[in-house]
Input
Amino acid sequence: MTTLAITGGQVLLPDISVTRADVLIDQDGGEILEIGDGLAGDADETIDASGSLVTPGFVNGHSHVAMTLLRGYADDKPLDAWLQEDIFPTEAELTPEDVHVGAKLGLLEMIKSGTTAFADMYFMVPQIADAVEEAGLRARLGHGVITVASNDEEARADAQEGLEVAEALDGRADGRISTAFMPHSLTTVGSEYLEEFVPKARELGVPIHFHGNETANEVTPIVEERGVRPMAYAAERGMLEEGDFLAHGVHLDESEIGLLAEAGTSVIHCPASNMKLASGIAPVQRMLDAGVTVGIGTDGAASNNDLSMLDETRDAAMIGKLKDGDASAVDAESAVRMMTQGSADAIGLESGRLEEGAPADLAVIDLEQPHLTPHHDLVSHLAYATAAADVRHTICDGQVLMRDRDVLTLEEESVRTAAGEAAMALVERAEN
Ligand SMILES: CSC[C@H]1O[C@@H](n2cnc3c(O)ncnc32)[C@H](O)[C@@H]1O
Ligand SMILES: [Zn+2]
Output
């Protein structure tokens, strides 16, 4: 067994308390062996965490990682106009190589900001899986199914691709990749396709992930045409089961929050995207109070415009208070819980907590910074004051992905150059 000790740091424990301890990892098994004092001597290798906070690697519960190529391309529009006028026409020009290099850029950014696992909905998912395999993160991936603008044959082929991707990629990258069936949303996938393909996804044993109640425009048509709220509509089509997770949940009423809590379906809160597209503010404290598992996600870099879970968590805590007019809503402890175990539980991963037997997915935060001084409360710092650049080391599945801010699994400069070139060529093709 090869072991690695992370020594000299303060450690964030699953009950969101912080204690002084070392963390001993089995690198072959990719799991935490022990958390305690004086473990450095037992290890084959050590990583210095003095003056640092050792946290679970952050879990990004909803992203479109290859959309880094469209960061800053189309801003300041609401969701429907943004998608229809700018994003969908440009995505129609994407090549598999674009998706591969865009994903690598996103994964580089994730590693640098302490994220070790994520859920992703996009096209050309095998190229994303290749990038995940190379970068060393953990992911739940799926092909985003959209049927609205298609004829029946195309729609069924797209949904079939969603199933095939879920089946083919599950377990890839030594088990770091898992999958889900991902209908894009309740208004962009026809009811007949949900009715046919969701049961087939159940046969595969994969969860369902979709954009749910992101804008008012996703609620009104369902209420008008079907006479029920969207979550009741989703439940009727078998899309709200334990292990399923939806992104956004901005426009959920009390009855829908109750349905989610009862079903064990989780919600991924994406505050930056919801603010930027002016979609609204999700009722996060109400969901937590009702017992819904809530995680945090960045959404794509084109509506955020970064992939930092630290930024996202700060946003979640801040707008949670605004939503309720209550400064105690979405407190620091809740926010930190959401960015780690909340997201991990939501997307069905065991990571998100530092304890014996848990996956060895960790981030080490440099506390010796002016904006992180003094150290009254390190959980407060994680929720409100830590920035991506404060992440020193990132470890996933026992492997060191970044050491002393040097990413080891991806060549930073070449990834940035290739992605920058691919993005400019993509836009050129789309506009001509
Ligand atoms: C079919 S793959 C995923 C699809 O979703 C688009 N997308 C990106 N951000 C959002 C969002 O906030 N709501 C809905 N859809 C979004 C992305 O561009 C892909 O086309
Ligand atoms: Zn999204």
Observations:
- The chain has two domains: 3-57+352-404, 58-347.
